[in-house]
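Fold it.
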Amino acid sequence: MLKNQEIQRLFTLTDNHGNRLTCDIHLHLYLSLVTETRTRNIGRVYALPDGELIYEKHDDEKHVFKKNNSWSIHYEILKRVNYVKVMTRKCKYWIKTEDAMSRGTFLHFRDQGMEKKKYIPLKFWFEQEYNTVGANSSTGEGVRA
């Protein structure tokens, strides 16, 4: 299993524009852009006992990208994890990184450095509502919950 210090090093980066991704001792991820004065908390990362890494972020359904009905994930984070989990008030969404990479697309209005994101349509995510026992899944078989 990866130690917290190893995970922190893996997720502490500066791009060629001066934007910075940092990971604190609690494995929360922060994004600092040179064009902004604030630092954004963009989620956290954690390791499973087998060493696989999960990126988790909390979001709201109203932030789903409407053009292609997708969640956006920072590419630099996506390259370093095995799974992505998006938590909302209604559901949790899971996807394997390999599926996110192959089924997601880049959009060109934010394709530089830390702002580069993959947009993965909701139809490719494993979705589980909090108040139900089962799960709705079109392609999420085998995804860890």
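The helical segments are 4-10, 75-78, 97-103.
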